[in-house]
Write a structure and sequence with these properties.
By secondary structure, this protein is mainly alpha-helical. It contains two helices and no strands. The radius of gyration is 57 Å and the shape is rod-shaped.
Length: 146
């Protein structure tokens, strides 16, 4: 081999060595950056968890209060329903008593007054009068077979 080819081989070998060193350095720098990023993410995660903890506790308290209020509202609604049902039933009973005590005797009194009015009217008129017969009535009597 001549000197120029040995020189070129030496240059190629040195450049391959430099490239290998640069690649190893890039890998080491990437690993360091990944560890730093992982540490930052872990710190951020801890901060978020610490910030979320009081919020989660508050949400738990609020949801428990909401559940309790909902249960109380349901109980109150049931009580109101029972009270309204009872009041409606009592009102129906009261109206039935009023109808039996007032309306029924009033109807009977009206019927009695109507009967008396009819009786007095019939007494005033006397015996029923016959209408004068017309010629058409006689024709009907002649055709009657009985």
């Amino acid at each position: 081999m001549n000197d120029s080819s040995s020189l070129w081989l030496a240059i190629i070998a040195i450049s391959c060595l430099v490239m290998a060193i640069v690649q190893v350095g890039a890998i080491i720098a990437g690993a360091i950056a990944a560890r730093q990023l992982q540490a930052r993410v872990a710190r951020l995660e801890q901060r978020v968890e610490q910030g979320m903890q009081p919020l989660m506790e508050r949400l738990t308290v609020i949801s428990a209060d909401a559940a309790r209020l909902s249960a109380l509202a349901v109980q109150q609604a049931e009580k109101a329903d029972v009270a309204l049902t009872s009041a409606a039933r009592r009102m129906d009973q009261t109206l039935a008593v009023v109808q039996n005590a007032v309306v029924a005797p009033a109807r009977e009194g009206m019927a009695l007054a109507s009967a008396l009015r009819a009786a007095v009217g019939s007494i005033r008129k006397g015996a029923p009068r016959r209408r004068p017969s017309s010629g058409a009535g006689d024709d009907d009597d002649a055709l009657f077979i009985g």
